[in-house]
Amino acid sequence: QVKLEESGGGLVQTGDSLRLSCAASGRTFSNYAMGWFRQAPGKERLFVATIKWNGVDTDYTDSVKGRFTISRDNAKNTVYLQMDSLKPEDTADYYCAATPGAPSRLRSQYRYWGQGTQVTVSS
């Protein structure tokens, strides 16, 4: 069992930055690939970014490439999502997730999920 807890969300303006954190507890954090997903009101939960256990291999959805950066600190059992140049369309609840498998864009591949943190970007 892995417990995940997101933090760092909030209300910001267009062009601002936020850093989301996801703290993990339970089983060995470094055994898991981690992902960030987001869900806008009335929409499905969509892939944002993922990172391999080693912190080197990453993948992003096209709409955030060059603006968002996923990273992890295995010593702190934490994964981060640095979000720069935020846009109103980034407004959503952001969820972190863990998978014992390879990094994936597929929601179904993730076994553990956090409760989410809300990000609102005003224009």
User: What structural class do you assign from the helix and strand content?
Assistant: mainly beta
User: Helix and strand string, N-terminal first?
Assistant: EEEEEEEEEEE
Helix share of residues? under 10%
Mean pLDDT: 96
Number of strands: 11
Rg to the nearest angstrom?
13 Å
Q: Provide the low-confidence segments as ranges.
A: none
Task: Characterize the largest beta sheet: strand count, sense, and whether it forms a barrel.
Answer: 7 strands, mixed
Tell me the distance between the termini. 40 Å
Q: What is the approximate shape?
A: globular
Q: Strand-residue fraction?
A: over 45%
Helical segment count: 0
Description:
The chain is mostly beta strands. Helices cover 0% and strands 52% of the residues. It is built from no helices and eleven strands. The chain has strands spanning 2-7, 10-13, 18-26, 33-39, 45-51, 58-60, 68-73, 78-83, 92-99, 112-113, 117-122. The strands form two sheets. Strands 2, 4, 5, 6, 9, 10 and 11 form a seven-stranded mixed beta sheet that branches. A hairpin with a 4-residue loop joins strand 7 and strand 8. It is globular, with a radius of gyration of 13 Å. The relative contact order is 0.32.
